[in-house]
């Protein structure tokens, strides 16, 4: 599976902004294939292998900065990615969007960043929604949590309060889909 370069640059920037004193150490400790990607100029519109570009670097973030909690590292880096992507010129669009509209668009956004991914809103509730990821060739819990963190921040920017987001099923755990159940007040 491949992922767009903007995902890699957001991971790189996440480490640089949040763990500045250990940024060089993080880059030096990356597995060789990941190191080659991160040492060269990452092109935003190019496709990169998801394992070397996202999974392994995020696991190293978990090891180095989150006491081996890869899920939390992935969630936080996804959250950071949405914060960076959805502020600035997109902020006005986000502020006038409903959460349902935002997540419907988010599914399309995720599909444009993760090659062959299919994510759809399957249920809208007055104070929540459920999304299904029915196809994701490189099923991995790190990726599930990165996407969930992105959704959480996008909905927070959209004005949702007391947000609760749970991954109730996962392709990575052998389920037939990954399910994101989201509720807010």
Strand content range:
15-25%
Main structural class: alpha+beta
Tell me how many strands there are.
6
Percent of residues in helices comes to 40-55%
Summed over residues and divided by their number, the pLDDT gives a mean of 92
User: How widely separated are the two ends?
Assistant: 36 Å
Low-confidence regions:
none
The number of helical segments is 8
Q: Evaluate the radius of gyration.
A: 16 Å
Following the backbone from N to C, one meets helices and strands in this order, namely EHHHEHHHHEEHEE
Shape descriptor reads globular
> How many strands, which pairing sense, and closed or not: the largest β-sheet?
4 strands, antiparallel
Largest beta sheet: strand ordering:
3-4-6-5
Question: What's the short story on this structure?
Answer:
The protein is of the alpha+beta class and 185 residues long. 54% of the residues lie in helices and 18% in strands.
Secondary-structure topology with pairs:
Layout lengths: L1 E3 H14 L4 H7 L2 H8 L7 E3 H16 L4 H16 L5 H6 L2 H15 L4 E8 L2 E8 L5 H17 L6 E6 L8 E6 L2
Antiparallel strand pairs: 1-2, 3-4, 4-6, 5-6
Helix pairs in contact: 1-4, 1-5, 3-4, 4-5, 5-8, 7-8
Describe the fold and architecture:
The mean pLDDT is 92. The chain has 185 residues and is α+β, with helices and mostly antiparallel strands. The chain is 54% helix and 18% strand. It starts with a strand and ends with a strand. A four-stranded antiparallel sheet has the order 3-4-6-5, covered by helices on one side. A two-stranded antiparallel ribbon has the order 1-2. The chain is globular and about 45 Å long. It has helices at 5-18, 23-29, 32-39, 50-65, 70-85, 91-96, 99-113, 141-157, and strands at 2-4, 47-49, 118-125, 128-135, 164-169, 178-183. It is built from eight helices and six strands. Helix 1 (5-18) packs across helix 5 and helix 4 packs across helix 5.
């Amino acid at each position: 599976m491949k992922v767009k370069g903007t995902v890699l640059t957001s991971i790189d920037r996440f480490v640089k902004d949040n763990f500045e004193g250990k940024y060089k150490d993080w880059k030096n400790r990356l597995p060789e294939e990941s190191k080659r990607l991160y040492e060269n100029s990452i092109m935003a519109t190019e496709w990169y292998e998801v394992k070397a570009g996202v999974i392994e670097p995020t696991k190293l973030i978990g090891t180095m900065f989150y006491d081996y909690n890869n899920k939390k590292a992935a969630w936080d880096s996804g959250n950071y990615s949405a914060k960076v992507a959805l502020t600035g010129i997109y902020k006005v669009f986000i502020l006038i969007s409903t959460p349902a509209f935002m997540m419907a668009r988010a599914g399309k956004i995720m599909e444009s960043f993760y090659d062959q991914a299919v994510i759809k809103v399957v249920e809208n509730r007055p104070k929540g929604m459920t999304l299904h990821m029915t196809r994701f060739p490189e099923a991995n819990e790190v990726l599930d949590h990165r996407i969930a963190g992105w959704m959480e921040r996008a909905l927070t920017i959209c004005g949702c309060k007391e947000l609760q987001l749970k991954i109730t099923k996962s392709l990575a755990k052998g389920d037939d889909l990954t399910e994101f159940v989201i509720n807010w007040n």
